[in-house]
Amino acid sequence: MGDVNETLFWDLFNCKSEIEVQKLIQTNKYLNNNDNWIPYGGKDRNNKSNFAEFEGQQANPIPALVEKITNSIDSLLMKKCRISGIDPESNLAPCTMKDAVERYFKIKDGDFSEVSQDDRRNIALDIQIVATGEKGQQPNILVFDNGEGQHPDDFYKTFLSLRSGNKTKIQFVQGKYNMGSTGAVIFCGDLHYQLICSKQSRELNERKDDIYGFTLVREHPLTPTEETLYKSSWHEYFVINDQVPRFSSKPLDIGLWKKSFDTGSMVKLYSYSLPAGSRSSIVWDLWRDLNQYLYQPALPFLLYESRKEYDQKTPSKTVLGNKTRLSIDEREKVEKIIPLSFDNSEIGHVEIDVMVFKQDVNQKEFINKKPVIFTINGQVHGDFSTSFISTELGFPLLKYSMLVHVDCTRIKTTFRKNLFKASRDRMNESSKTESLKQLIINNLRSNETLKEIHQNRKNSILHENKSDTGLIKDIISKLPIEKDLLDMLKNSGDLQVFNMMNKTENRKDTEERDRKKNPNKGPHTSNRFPSIFKINIDPDQHGKRIKTVPLNGKGVVKFETDVEDEYLFRPKDKGALIIQILTHGVKSKNGSKNGLPTEVADLFEVIKAGPTDNSIRVTFAPKNNVEIGDEFEVNAKLTSPDGDLECMFYIKIIDSQKEPENKKTEKNKKDSPSLPMPIKVFEKNETDALEQYATWDKYGWTGEDIVLVIEGNKIESGMIPIEGIAINMDSYVLKRYLSKNQLNEEKQIKFVKDKYFLQVYLHSLFLYSILSKMEKNASSPDEGAVEKISKIFKVYAPFLLSVENSEAILKAFASE
Question: Which residues of the chain form CATH 3.30.230?
């Protein structure tokens, strides 16, 4: 029987598509026998209600495939643990995935940026993703790992079980729900075929029989009678004589990259429905997607494109995750890295790293549609769209250049369980999610470095031409309809979209003012390790450095240093900033008394930001157990291999102070409406032009683009004002109209262009008002108003021009 089973395995394995598998089932006497199929989820033949478990998993084939890879990483780590003689559920086992990688692979802090390329690739050979099949069809995806493997007798309680919780008590693995094998099945073509084969590691096989086991998973094909009896189908697996088929063999050649299948596990997903952008060679498209979904995998793994029809110059590539990629190979593409960390009493410890890419970097390579990602052990569990960066954070010009990584690994379990779906591919709409979201908004929106980068991007494209501004005002005064529209926009509270700044400050003026204010300030110098760590608090007459913090407010303590921005974030040679409470002077009715040293998290919500441009900012927000008059002796320590650097200071709690009325009045007085800046954009700038205009390359435009609305920062009312409206004066739409109507006279051309400029400007203003309001009221906005306007005008602009036909233009000139 063993030879028959081995032959059947190879017959299944060699099928190039689900159609071939279906034909084999119809002709093979074992596969075509319905008694040889058991419902997935154990050995119970009557359990025909597993369809929901399969269908309720990931909504996208990429995160579903990621679950397979995660299972492979878990299996490899558990194999190492068991071989070392430690029960994975015991207290002697590693506490985290990083601990496990450090212990069993000798990789410090689980950081593969410190490992050579050859060593990383050798480790990656033990987890491989292989594409097979024929070009033009959906590929078969094979997932292999050299992990612990499973004996055929154990398949029903491992590969073929559901919700058994077989990893729940293991701290150093990702899988918990025992459903990771089901999510990818529904993306296996229309018939959901999945081949599983495994042989247990010899070091772990107590039976000593050294055999392979295999089974085929499918969606049960309902008979006409079953169609009337059951509301849904179910998934099932193949057996012979109620046993998982098995055979003995030498190592199998299943088409891996420089490796045979001797022990471990293999899953083949037939006709896997990869999304449109990932269907070509997997070492390019799928490689990019997996680097995004596995931001920092615990172990590297290999992609191998075995289909000869594709370019074989690079048949295999290692997946390290975007974090390691950006630290090793792609660092020159990053303009700024901003690390932050939070210790919150409700949420726990949260680490955020913000990467701002240079303007010319293709964002799809690292961000695509997920600019804000939430990870656990490096795997993405949820994300926010670009509208979060533009609308919630108020950085619209960074929404395609900014990657925000929120590490949720050390968030409290009681908080984290309500954040993510069990499928680990999206977030719950819960109060916990809103709390975490608000924490991110509060601290990123006010981040000085991000505000400066965004303003610099804005300054580079906001170039005011007085003639354009005059044109807008002049034409509005002559067109009552447009003027009425403008008045309506200005007077309507719901449609108040005007910039609340009287004018945009010239960047050169700002830089000149900063030079006068800090004449000795030179460029920042940064070292690999810190040699300077100074607190920015002057001592009082007693020599004490005291920072006063309002009871219901926040206090920011700044430190000067000379270390690289990535010091607390980088994978290699990473440092730490440690805040300690040494003494606690407690105010009470009987006077003050010194308390014992305590944890800073017991007394303050602490936010660490930096280093950024040689500065570290630590924000302290007192908790409810702190009182006015309390005084704390604090030690801040910046670690360094050359000797830790320390700063001592005091925090004193004072009464909260209200904002002075005159300050509010001045603020309201400053916030007076003004027109968004009109900006003309041309394909290229004429060298003899009196005024310099913006050009296509500044915006990344072609002739197909029409308009870009440039947003400002969100104001107190919740509205996002418009600072500028950029209009393509060399658009193909405008050029085609001029050509079609044979307008050759300079006066006619100028009239059409001015009219086009004004109409696009005013319609953009009006559309932005409507779309912003709709977006604000939407339960889950997809795209922001800016993106929608840019798309709308590509088809709307010809209509605006067509209503102004050449005859009407000539009539207008005749009346002048």
Answer: 330-459
SS3 23: helix
- Under 8 Å between Cβ of 607 and 341: yes
Check: CB of residue 140 under 8 Å from CB of residue 133. Answer: yes
May I ask the CATH class of domain 533-654? mainly beta
Nearest to 323 by CA among 112, 121, 102, 528: 112
Which token pair is 618? 């630590």
Q: Cα angle at 341 between 338 and 344, to 5 degrees?
A: 150
286-307 pLDDT per residue, tens = 999 999 999 999 999 999 999 9
In the chain, which segments carry CATH 2.60.40.10?
533-654
291-326 burial: b if 16+ Cβ within 10 Å, else e:
bbbbbbbbbbbbbbbbbeebeeeebbbbbbbbbbbb
Specify the domain boundaries for CATH 3.30.565.10 within the chain. 2-322
Calpha distance 448→464 (Å, rounded): 25
CA 628 to chain centre: 41
* Pairing assessment for the beta strands 264-269 and 645-654 based on DSSP bridges: unpaired
The tokens for 77 are: 């780590």
CB contact at 8 A, 594 and 563? no
Would you tell me how many other CB atoms lie within 10 Å of the CB of residue 803?
8
DSSP string across 52-81: HHHHTS-SSHHHHHHHHHHHHHHHHHHHHH
Place of tokens 């029989």: 209
CATH of domain 330-459: 3.30.230
pTM (2 d.p.): 0.76
Q: What would you report as the CA-atom Rg of the chain, rounded to the nearest whole angstrom?
A: 32
pLDDT tens per residue across span 354-401: 999 988 787 778 888 889 999 999 999 999 988 888 888 888 888 888
| CA distance linking residue 318 with residue 546, whole number of Å | 52
Confidence of residue 250 (pLDDT cuts 50, 70, 90): very high
Six-digit token pair at 714? Answer: 């969100």
Question: How far apart are alpha carbons 665 and 263 in whole angstroms?
Answer: 75
Tell me the pLDDT band of 671, cut-offs 50, 70 and 90. Answer: very low
Q: What fold, for 2-322?
A: Heat Shock Protein 90 (3.30.565)
Residues 6 or more apart whose CB falls under 8 angstroms from that of 799 comprise none
Q: How far is CA 324 from CA 117, 295, 610, 620, in A?
A: 12, 8, 20, 31
One-letter amino acid at 554 equals K
CB count within 10 Å of CB 207 equals 11
Strands (E) in 570-658, as ranges, are 577-588, 591-595, 604-612, 615-622, 631-638, 645-654
d(CA 715, CA 478): 32
- For residue 535 the two structure tokens come to 């607190």
Model confidence pLDDT, tens digit, residues 590-625:
444 455 557 888 889 899 988 988 899 999 999 888
Q: What is the largest CA-CA distance in the chain?
A: 101
Q: How far apart are the first and last CA of the chain?
A: 99
> In 645-701, which residue ranges form alpha helices assigned H by DSSP?
661-670, 696-699
pLDDT single digits (tens) 629-640: 899 999 999 999
Could you give the strand order of the β-sheet that contains 707-711, starting from the edge strand earlier in sequence? Answer: 694-695, 677-682, 722-728, 707-711
Contacts of 765 (CB under 8 A, 6+ apart): 489, 497, 676, 722, 725
Burial of 590 (0-12, 13-18, 19+ CB in 10 A): exposed
Q: Decide if 295 contacts 379 (C-beta within 8 A).
A: yes
Q: In what order do the strands lie in the sheet with 591-595?
A: 546-550, 645-654, 631-638, 577-588, 591-595
Question: pLDDT tens, 779-807?
Answer: 555 567 787 888 888 877 877 776 554 44
